[in-house]
Each structure stands twice: as structure tokens, then as C-alpha cells.
Design goal:
With about 110 residues, chain A is mostly helical. Chain A has helices at about 5-30, 40-45, 50-60, 75-90, 95-110. Chain A has five helices and no strands. Chain B has about 240 residues and is mostly helical. Chain B contains 13 helices and no strands. The chains are: A mainly alpha (about 110), B mainly alpha (about 240). Chains A and B meet through helix 1, helix 2, helix 3, helix 4 and helix 5 of A and helix 3, helix 4, helix 5, helix 6 and helix 7 of B.
């Protein structure tokens, strides 16, 4: 394609990104003050965190090298995630989860 | 206790609640900062972007488009669609902050991220939020996250050439999110929803404008809600509290 976006164009992009981020984050918090959520929507929103976070992390975990996703047991990120997940099954200590996941991931990357 | 000391206590409790997860924010911020400079942004632009946008995934989605000279509307639209999930978060937070002033709701929204939102919801659903001053509690969570992310992002911007990018440090951020997902997989609707969201996220990974993430989230939420509606009433109510 063409030259990178610079100068005024870049300023427009940054302002645009800042605005759209602010508007999405504050959308329902600011608008619709009289809005009453019906029961179905309330139930749906209850599952928003777990579903959205899963949609974020699954592609992160399964990407390997250039491949979009690698389900093989030799994928270092998959090994790291499994170690972190196992840690969470017997302890709720988050630091331990991060450490065990990163150690397993790093070892797998160096050794495999 | 007076009202203001209660507020301060709620704020401090919020700061403590996120403390152990901050390595995730730190690593993710650092790598985002490095990526902005390696993606071709000069130092002042990168710092400005980090401070004004404060959305790692949208920034990283925009970078290759900026470098390739894509049309401005395409870059902004990509950022917007990457951020669509925040609309759902905003709706979920709304009932908890309905009585706050407009300015305070705007500020809480500005500082909300994937992690801080999910942490808030987990505390709310477990009934372990403070009874009063939830806004102060959330402000405590968000302030620690913001400071950590920004300090590390700007460190990454300034020291881009000296930060190792081949260690996969950013994976710490993924693990911090994983640490919120795993304990939430405690009932059938959540498990079904997460499974659907994960599979759709993989299948929809190549959709234009990073639409895949939002589509996957919606599909997961729909599957979880459907599964929830098929549970016997009491089981569903307990499911909401555990």
C-alpha cells in the first residue's frame, strides 16, 4: 500500500481511536438512565465476562509461530496455559498462577 | 467511621484486590509500548496514543494499518469494532453505578478495561463488593491498573530497543485473564458459553475489522443464556451466586 499515516492524518487517527474507545466504554454508563433491563438481558450480561475473556484468550493461547492456531500438545503457550489452569485448580493465588504459567511456557519454548 | 474514611477504605480495598494481577497489566503495557514504536510511531505520538486511547488491543490492531497507510476511516473503524465488547461491559456495569453522577460514570467508563471489568463483576457476583462506595472500590482497581499499564507502556516506548520482545512477556497478560476465566467455569451455562466463544473466536479470527472477537463474545453469551434458560429455576438462581 501507500506511505505510513503521519502528521495530521495520524492526529486524526489517534483522536478517532480515543473517541471511539471512550464512547464504547461509557455508552450504557452514560446513556439510557431510565433504561430497565429485562430479566433475559440481565442473565445474558452475567455471562459477558467469562465469554468475552475466553474469546480474547483462546486465539492468544493457540497461536504458535506464524500459524493462527496450533492445537498440538507441543505448543508452548498451550503448555503454559495448562500449567496456569492446573495451578488455579488447587490454589487461588494469582501470582502463583502467572509464575507457573510463564515458567512452563518459557521452559517449553526453550526445550521443545 | 465517617463517609469519607469509608470511601478511602473502599478505594484501598479496590487497589488491594487487583494487586496480585498487576504483573499481567505490566507486561501487556510494556509490550504494547514497544510495539507502538516498532510499528513506526515516533516517541511523542506513541505516548500521546497510550495516554489518550488506553486500549491495548485497539492500539495494536491500528498499528499495522497506520504503517501501511490505510484510509483513516478504516483504521478508526477497526479500532471501534475491536472495542465493541466495551458496549456490553458498559451495559453490565450500568446497574451498579446508576446513582452516580454523570461525570463519575464517564470517568469509571474511561478507566474500565477487560480485566478491571471482569474483576468487578466477579466480586459483584460473589457478593464480596463493599456494601457502599462501589464506585470508590472500582476506582481503586482501575487506578492501580492504569498507573501500572501507563508506566510500563511509556517505559516500553522510551526503551523500545532494549526490551526483549522474543520472551513472550505479553503472555502474562493472557494468563491474568485466564485466572479470571477458570474460576468462573463453575456452572454449565458458563462452560457452554466459554466453549462456544472460544471456538467461534478461532473460526472468526480472520474476519475483517477484527469483528471476530465481538461475534465470538455474542455467540458465547447467547449460548450461555440459552443454557441458563433450560436450567430448573432454583439451579439457575444458585448458578448466579456461585
Amino acid at each position: 500500500m501507500s506511505e505510513p499515516v503521519v502528521g495530521i492524518g495520524l492526529a486524526v487517527v489517534i483522536v478517532g481511536l480515543a473517541l471511539t474507545t471512550f464512547l464504547t466504554r461509557t455508552s450504557f454508563l452514560l446513556a439510557g438512565s431510565r433504561l430497565r433491563l429485562n430479566h433475559r438481558v440481565e442473565v445474558a450480561l452475567r455471562y459477558a465476562p467469562v465469554c468475552t475473556l475466553t474469546a480474547i484468550i483462546v486465539p492468544d493461547i493457540l497461536q504458535h509461530g506464524g500459524a493462527a492456531f496450533d492445537l498440538s500438545p507441543l505448543n508452548p503457550r498451550l503448555i503454559g496455559a495448562l500449567a496456569a489452569g492446573l495451578w488455579l485448580c488447587w490454589s487461588r493465588n494469582i501470582l502463583g498462577c502467572l509464575a507457573s504459567g510463564m515458567i512452563a511456557y518459557s521452559l517449553a519454548r526453550v526445550l521443545l | 467511621m465517617t463517609g469519607s474514611s469509608e470511601r478511602r477504605e473502599a478505594f484501598r480495598a479496590g487497589r488491594r484486590a487487583i494487586l496480585h494481577s498487576l504483573p499481567g497489566a505490566a507486561a501487556w503495557g510494556l509490550i504494547s509500548g514497544v510495539a507502538m514504536v516498532k510499528g513506526g510511531l515516533s516517541l511523542p505520538w506513541a505516548i500521546m496514543m497510550s495516554l489518550s486511547v488506553y486500549a491495548g488491543s485497539a492500539q495494536l490492531a491500528a498499528l499495522p494499518l497506520i504503517a501501511a497507510g490505510a484510509p483513516l476511516w478504516v483504521i478508526v473503524a477497526t479500532g471501534l469494532i475491536t472495542n465493541l465488547r466495551f458496549v456490553i461491559y458498559s451495559a453490565a456495569l450500568r446497574p451498579y453505578f446508576a446513582n452516580e453522577s454523570t461525570g463519575r460514570r464517564a470517568a469509571l467508563g474511561f478507566f474500565m478495561t477487560d480485566f478491571t471489568f471482569a474483576l468487578f463483576m466477579r466480586h459483584a457476583q460473589h457478593g464480596i463488593l463493599p456494601e457502599r462506595h462501589r464506585d470508590a472500590w472500582f476506582a481503586g482497581v482501575c487506578s492501580n491498573n492504569w498507573i501500572t499499564w501507563q508506566v510500563c507502556a511509556i517505559t516500553g516506548i522510551v526503551a523500545a530497543s532494549r526490551v526483549p520482545t522474543d520472551w513472550g512477556l505479553e503472555f502474562t497478560g493472557t494468563l491474568a485473564l485466564l485466572a479470571l476465566v477458570v474460576p468462573a467455569l463453575n456452572a454449565r451455562p458458563a462452560i457452554v458459553g466459554a466453549a462456544v466463544a472460544g471456538v467461534v473466536a478461532l473460526l472468526a479470527h480472520d474476519m475483517p475489522f477484527r469483528l471476530g472477537l465481538f461475534v465470538a463474545a455474542i455467540a458465547g453469551i447467547a449460548a450461555a443464556t440459552f443454557t441458563d434458560s433450560r436450567l430448573p429455576r432454583e439451579a439457575s438462581d444458585t448458578g448466579s451466586r456461585t
